Amino acid sequence: MLLSRLIILFLLVSNLAHCQDFLKKTFKFSTFYVAANGGTSISDVDIFSVTNGLQVETVKTPFDYNFTFGVRKIARFGYENRANTFYDGTESSFSDAATIGKVKGFEFLFEADIKRQEGVDYLDQNHFLRYVGPKWIFKTEYLQDGFADIEYFEASQRYRHQINNKLSLNVGVLQRFAEPYGYDPLEAWTLATGDIHYTYLAIQEGYNIDVYNGIYTDPSGETVATNVEVWEAVVIPEVLSNYVEKKKSEIPVQWNHSLVVGFDYYHYTKDFWLHSWGNLLPYHYDLENEYSYHNYVGGQWYDYSGGLIFGYKLNKNLGIFAEGKYNKYWNREWYEFKCGVNYVIF
Question: Do 306 and 325 lie in a common domain?
Answer without folding.
Answer: yes
